[in-house]
Amino acid sequence: MRTQVGIIGSGPSGLLLARLLHLQGIDTVILESRSREYVQGRIRAGVIEQGMADLLREAKVGERMDREGLIHEGINIAFANRLERIDFPSHTDGKVVMVYGQTEITHDLMKAHIDEAGGIVHYEAPAVRVEDYDTGSPRIIYEQNGQRKELICDFVAGCDGFHGVARQSVPSDKISVFARNYPFGWLGILSDVPPVREELVYVSHECGFALCSMRSHIRSRYYVQCDLDDRVENWTDDAFWDELRRRLPPHVAETVTTGPRLEMSIAPLHSFVAEPMRFGRLFLAGDAGHIVPPTGAKGLNLAASDIYYLCRALLAYYKDKRTDLLDRYSETALRRVWKAIRFSWWYTSLLHKLDDDPMTHRLQIAELDYLTGSVAGRTTLAENYVGLPYETFE
Ligand code: FAS
Ligand code: PHB
Q1: What's the pLDDT tens digit per position in 71-127?
Q2: For a Cys staple, 293 with which of 269, 330, 360, 374, CB 3.0–4.6 Å?
């Protein structure tokens, strides 16, 4: 089988790239190891930067997001029994974020690209490796129905996430990796209860981090920092709600509406970057190239900026036989990635319980007191959270 752009992975990166290329008449085939139902059922990100919202609109899949998504003009930070709000528009020339679950984005992309446009996605067809990516005809070796097959392409987009095979198809001496693992995870609950506040609440507490988020006005997403060796089985719903309220300021805790879990899971926190993100005709995008702790709500949004650059580079090649944007993809994508990696690391280190030394938490409190009490502090928080600008790439 042959196509113009072979894509490994049908998460947000792969689906968005396929959709954008399809709208420009470029043929793609997506190979996805899991079933469509499995991919559709994943509960992940919740906050979208303006750049990603605009890209979804460009992909003509923004209609339900604009109808059902929640515009948020700020976040709250709780510390030392205080609740301090960071306003976005007044510190970023009017920028805001959108709360709209990754699950919904995946649904909208699948509906548009597969169901309505007939885009080719082979589910339960895991890629095994990418070969000949330094030639004009790279090949994706994959398995389907117990048979080994190959997809010959002009280009391969490795959109197969942190555990994918695209990055692993590159010899280790051709790729540099930078990694930092955090000694804690996030225990998350999804529940059909109204959120405790209309905007997100990030919590720094001596017992650990917490986050109050939502998917709608009647569906909430909460997280508490937990040990890496903790297990969902260790937690009853009541135990979760008690721990969340313990970490919130009392005047906020008393307004929490509790309810049964729809889902409960534990996610580890990592920072990871692979350099470069381009190897001949193989390009990495999204989690295949980088991972951030979810504290800064950057993971999904970095996938979007990668796809913004990669799509434009591929279109410049097919429309005008230009290779300059292909050559600039990795450097341009990584410049934005590293700034988000830095912010996510810094924001994670600021809000989480890092050790048992009381001095550590007091220094965190002092930094939060300074940041929320200073125009410069509120500006740096706001401009990073709403998302740093995409580079001009044309
Ligand atoms: P994805 O991992 O979403 O998709 C990769 C796809 O490739 C998957 O469908 C996988 O099945 C497939 N695949 C893997 N190997 C393959 C192979 N060999 N062959 C074919 N297909 C293969 N980000 C936020 O901004 N906020 C959050 O709160 C947040 N929470 C998260 C919680 C968890 C548990 C995880 C894992 C991530 C979270 N993220 C969050 C980050 C997440 O949203 C990612 O940034 C986003 O899914 C990136 O999308 P993709 O790059 O498409 O990768
Ligand atoms: C979420 O709603 O899942 C969410 C929101 C903000 C974050 C992380 C997760 O920083």
Answers
A1: 999 999 999 999 999 999 999 999 999 999 999 999 999 999 999 999 999 999 999
A2: 269
pTM of the full structure: 0.96
Rounded to 5°, angle at Cα 11 from 9 and 17: 80
Domain-wise residue ranges, the chain: 5-51+64-70+102-178+270-353
Which phi and psi angles does 343 have, rounded to 5°?
-65, -45
Q: How far is the CA of 263 from the centre of ligand 2 (A)?
A: 15
Q: Is 303 in the pocket of ligand 1 (CB under 6 A)?
A: yes
Q: Which one of 122, 294, 317, 329 is the catalytic residue?
A: 294
Summarised one tens digit per residue, pLDDT across range 312-349 is 999 999 999 999 999 999 999 999 999 999 999 999 99
Q: Find out whether 6 and 155 touch, Cβ atoms under 8 Å.
A: yes
5-51+64-70+102-178+270-353 folds as FAD/NAD(P)-binding domain (3.50.50)
Q: Which tokens go with 137? A: 């005809």
Among protein residues, the one with the nearest Cα to ligand 2's atom 7 is 297
